[in-house]
Amino acid sequence: RRLEEETDRLRRMEEKLDQLRLGVKLEDGPTAPAIVNLRDYDHERGFTLFDITIHEGRNRQIRRMCDAIGFPVRDLKRIKLGPLQLSNLGRGKFRSLSEQELSQLRKAAKL
Asked: What is the arithmetic mean of pLDDT over 8-18?
């Protein structure tokens, strides 16, 4: 019985994540579909960890998308911005970009 309950919870949670994958209606209009990958789930702790990739970047968009599907965000970490990897950069820190990164940014911005 416990396995059935856990399977049902996981199915319902995946259905909510599918809403992000299809796009969510927000106050300022619908979002584009997101790429969502589930990494960890613990019902007893109320914990779901997933990666999400969006292509727009409206104000507080990920938090608002998650609120819309009933998944309040406890912690959010940006790991990439366009072609730039940010994983080793601390909060409030900055670094100089390499020539390769500048070139990638120019290409992404079509400059």
From this structure: 89
Does the pLDDT of residue 63 top 90, yes or no? yes
Enter the DSSP assignment of 31: P
Whole-angstrom distance, CA of residue 41 vs CA of residue 35? 17
Per DSSP, the three-state class of 81 is: strand
Q: Which of 22, 20, 26 is nearest to 50 (CA)?
A: 20
Angle at 37 between CA 5 and CA 72, to 5 degrees: 70
Tokens of 33: 């579909």
Q: Do 22 and 56 touch, CB atoms closer than 8 A? A: no
Q: Please, what sign has the CA dihedral across residues 101, 55, 35, 107?
A: negative
Q: Is 87 helix (H, G, I), strand (E, B) or coil?
A: coil
Q: How many residues comprise the chain?
A: 111
Separation of alpha carbons 7 and 29, rounded Å: 33
Q: In the block, which residue shows the tokens 């727009």?
A: 56
Q: What is the mean pLDDT of residues 5-11?
A: 85
Copy the structure tokens of residue 95: 């670094």
